[in-house]
């Protein structure tokens, strides 16, 4: 089996490296293509566990499974270039936010498409991926897809594309919400007089410890909050401030903003035009 990753950015490279390290494929069976010459040259020099190709003509026709890891706005241009070289036995795994299975099937003239939504912690083997396969994909093919996805962490199979868009708002974009929270706490620490480094250690160790506690048993986040908060103490003062400022509602809205944007990114030109007509 030959696997090709198209787009060697944050996520494409994460998959190529993880699959390469997993030993699941021989080096010559794991191929990477990116349109950037500089990036290709850097990757060739790095001598990773995959082969880097300069043209799609050399690698696409011989691949069995193809990861699409370019930004959604590069997809139309890429699919137009790929279409002539595709055959209907090839299986495509798209990790692009929003882009639907139907768009890829139509754009590439194939049926076997999996839509997956990973997240950036995949880079350290702690990724969370949701995925959905088109019905044309066999059970054996699905096992292979799961093996590839699980090389970066955990995965969950969902039963509609709505859940891929929804998980984009939770786990796909989610690491950025965590970093936002970390940044806010580090800024607060620095305003209290801590050095940059001390602020970083205070905050990152707090996050690490809290996650480890949370994973330790079945206690809910609220249960853990109660263990931290003494009656009439400091934590209660902080939690009351968060509640007064509707922070939970704001985080809820942020997750929905990402979910809605994923749906919007997936709309075809015709769907966008129809929507604009209705809104006029
Ligand atoms: N980053 C994240 O946390 C997550 C991202 N995703 C999805 O993954 C996809 C990739 O995101 P990310 O890795 O962050 O993006 P990056 O911009 O880091 O990587 C995309 C790469 O693809 C290259 N590229 C663009 N067009 C082509 C083409 N026609 N042929 C070959 N290569 C091309 C880009 O080159 P150039 O820079 O020159 O354009 C770039 O090197 C997106 O669709 C995103 O929605 C999903 C989950 C999480
Ligand atoms: O921001 C984005 O659109 C992508 C999808 C999920 C994370 N990054």
UniProtKB/TrEMBL annotation:
The family database entries (SUPFAM superfamilies) matched by this protein are listed as:
6-phosphogluconate dehydrogenase C-terminal domain-like, NAD(P)-binding Rossmann-fold domains
The record places domain Pyrroline-5-carboxylate reductase catalytic N-terminal at 2-98
Q: Name one Pfam family in it.
A: F420_oxidored
Keyword Cytoplasm assigned: yes
Under Enzyme Commission nomenclature, its number is: 1.5.1.2
Q: What does this protein do?
A: Catalyzes the reduction of 1-pyrroline-5-carboxylate (PCA) to L-proline.
The UniProt entry, under PANTHER family, shows: PYRROLINE-5-CARBOXYLATE REDUCTASE, PYRROLINE-5-CARBOXYLATE REDUCTASE 3
What family is this? Answer: Belongs to the pyrroline-5-carboxylate reductase family.
In Swiss-Prot or TrEMBL terms, this protein is called: Pyrroline-5-carboxylate reductase
């Amino acid at each position: 089996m030959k696997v090709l990753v198209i787009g060697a950015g944050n996520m494409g490279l994460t998959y190529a490296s993880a699959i390469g390290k997993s030993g699941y494929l021989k080096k010559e069976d794991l191929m990477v293509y990116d349109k950037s010459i500089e990036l290709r040259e850097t990757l060739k020099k790095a001598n990773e566990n995959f082969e880097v190709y300069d043209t799609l003509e050399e690698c696409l026709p011989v691949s069995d499974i193809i990861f699409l890891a370019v930004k959604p706005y590069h997809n139309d241009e890429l699919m137009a270039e790929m279409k002539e070289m595709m055959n209907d036995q090839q299986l495509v795994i798209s990790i692009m936010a929003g882009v639907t299975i139907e768009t890829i099937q139509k754009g590439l003239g194939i049926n076997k498409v999996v839509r997956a939504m990973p997240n950036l912690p995949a880079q350290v083997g702690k990724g969370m991926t949701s995925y959905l396969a088109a019905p044309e994909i066999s059970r054996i093919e699905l096992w292979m897809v799961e093996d590839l996805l699980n090389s970066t962490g955990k995965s969950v199979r969902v039963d509609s594309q709505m859940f891929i868009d929804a998980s984009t708002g939770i786990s796909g974009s989610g690491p950025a919400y965590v970093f936002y929270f970390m940044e806010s706490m580090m800024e607060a620490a620095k305003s209290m007089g801590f050095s940059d480094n001390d602020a970083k250690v205070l905050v990152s160790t707090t996050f690490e410890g809290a996650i480890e506690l949370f994973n330790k048993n079945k206690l809910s986040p609220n249960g853990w909050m109660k263990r931290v908060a003494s009656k009439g103490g400091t934590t209660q003062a902080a939690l009351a401030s968060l509640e007064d400022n509707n922070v939970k509602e704001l985080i809820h809205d942020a997750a929905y903003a990402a979910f809605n944007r994923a749906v919007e990114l997936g709309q075809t030109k015709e769907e966008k035009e129809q929507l604009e007509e209705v809104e006029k």
